[in-house]
Amino acid sequence: MRQKTCVACGKELKGRSDKRFCDLHCKSTYHYRKSQEEEPRFFNKVDNQLKTNRKILKQYNKAGKATVRSSLIIGEGFNPNYFTHYWKNKKGDVFS
Question: For 38-49, how does the pLDDT look when each residue is reduced to its tens digit (9 = 90+)?
Fold first, then answer.
């Protein structure tokens, strides 16, 4: 019978024949390191940009309605291509 070792730490495994990790800590550590090595998924990129956009808008729009130059917020990392909804006024102007 071949001895198996933990994928994360290399300790000898005891128990089931298909066991890959010695405990939950090793399993969590392995998957966390693996996710850090991989390129971020599309969903994560979009979600992070939306969070950045909201944070920047919140900083400048404390009173509820504010006009800010686009060059100012774009310089801070705002990306106008990422938004969750838009609003159209009676004149037909679109705000996102």
Answer: 888 899 899 999
Amino acid identity of 15? G
Residue 1 reports pLDDT greater than 60? no
Would you say 62 and 68 are in contact if contact means Cβ atoms under 8 Å apart? no
Bridge partner list, 92 = none
Tens digit of pLDDT for each residue in 10-26? 999 999 989 999 999 99
Q: Which pTM was predicted?
A: 0.56
DSSP structure string for the chain: -PPPB-TTT-PBP-S-TT---SSHHHHHHHHHHHHHHSPPPHHHHHHHHHHHHHHHHHHH-SSS-----HHHHHHTT--TT--S--EE-TT--EE-
